[in-house]
Design brief:
Blueprint (H helix, E strand, L loop, with lengths): L7 E4 L3 H12 L8 E4 L3 H11 L2 E3 L2 H6 L3 E4 L3 H11 L8 E4 L6 H7 L5 E6 L9 E7 L5 H11 L3 E5 L5 H9 L1 H18 L4 H22 L3 H7 L6 H11 L2 H19 L4
Parallel strand pairs: 1-2, 1-4, 2-3, 4-5, 5-6, 7-8
Antiparallel strand pairs: 6-7
Helix pairs in contact: 7-12, 8-9
The chain binds NADP nicotinamide-adenine-dinucleotide phosphate.
Length: 273
């Protein structure tokens, strides 16, 4: 099943669906006529039909039935009722892609049919500006073509990498919650800049360019983080003074503990913690 030749239905027309639909259309990957969304909110339906130019329905089942692939993009706590609505319909024989955080492929298969082809995706918020990081995992019946299809959809809003489903709790801890760790660091850096008397808009500009530049330097050089860190840390210099404080405060260990806590919480939320 090729992305360009497929009809895709998005159940739930919230922020993530908007990002992915805009990403697919901007990239010219799918024609607007091949996309249909459904949502309970008339305001969201109006946005999609009037501003984005795709069909927007109130009826989830009708939206899903007209598609080759169905992308589930409602909040995890709503997903059970949406699966109930879709069960017993032809949707069970289509490719079902779920981006609902923490919901196992098995839960979706049980809600539809054991042989329904399910691919689960763990995206993150920078997808909203086309710079997301997502991992995807196949359910029991999904084929390689199905995972390739899901990958192509998610690549319209960033990078997407394949993973075994057992790794998705760790992925949640790494890239799902990851943006918050970076925001936390930026918050602290900007608080410090303020106490040093630096003006706000300029500090923000410098801090953002620093984070983006450091990430791109690591990506483009292919070097390990530790190597790049050592390279900017001259003995007796300013960076060494700063990193010494971080080491004494146990920041690295705290980050490691934080990620384990996120992974554990992801397992608990999925009901097997
Ligand atoms: N945002 C992220 O960065 C992010 C990251 C990782 C994973 N995810 C996952 O992506 C999924 C979507 O997230 P989101 O941020 O796009 O959520 P969202 O903006 O809240 O979108 C969900 C949409 O579904 C609508 N809806 C509620 N009940 C429905 C129903 N029964 N049938 C059809 N539509 C219904 C909601 O309407 P109302 O608002 O009126 O209820 C809302 O417009 C979630 O499962 C989330 O876990 C999101």
């Amino acid at each position: 099943m090729k992305l360009q030749d497929s009809n895709i239905a998005f159940i739930g027309a919230g922020n993530m669906t908007e990002a992915i639909v805009r990403g697919l259309l901007d990239a010219g990957e799918v024609e607007a006529g091949r996309i249909c969304v459904s949502d309970v909110d008339p305001g969201r339906r109006a946005l999609f039909s009037e501003s984005i130019g795709v069909e927007a329905l109130e009826d989830n089942r009708a939206a899903a039935e007209s598609a080759d692939a169905v992308l589930l993009a409602v909040k995890p706590q709503i997903l059970g009722s949406v699966l109930e609505e879709l069960s017993g319909s032809p949707v069970e024989d289509k490719l079902v892609i779920s981006i609902a955080a923490g919901v196992r492929t098995r839960t979706i298969e049980e809600g539809l049919r054991a042989r329904t082809r399910v691919v689960r995706v763990m995206p993150n918020t920078p997808a909203l500006i086309g710079r997301g990081a997502a991992a995807y995992a196949a359910g029991r019946a999904a084929t390689e073509a199905d995972t390739a299809f899901a990958a192509a959809v998610m690549q319209s809003v960033g990078v997407a990498v394949p993973m075994g489903e057992e790794a998705l709790d760790a992925v949640t801890a790494l890239s799902g919650s990851g943006p918050a760790y970076v925001f936390y660091l930026l918050e602290a850096m900007l608080d410090a800049a303020k106490t040093m008397g630096l003006p706000d808009p300029e500090s923000r500009k410098l801090a953002l360019a620093t984070v983006k530049g450091a990430a791109d330097l690591m990506g483009e050089s292919g070097e390990d983080a530790a190597v790049l860190r050592a390279r900017v840390t001259s003995p007796g210099g300013t960076t060494e003074a700063a990193l010494g404080e971080l080491e004494r405060a146990g920041v690295k260990d705290a980050v490691i503990r934080a990620m384990h806590a996120a992974e554990q919480r992801s397992k608990e939320l999925a009901g097997d913690g």
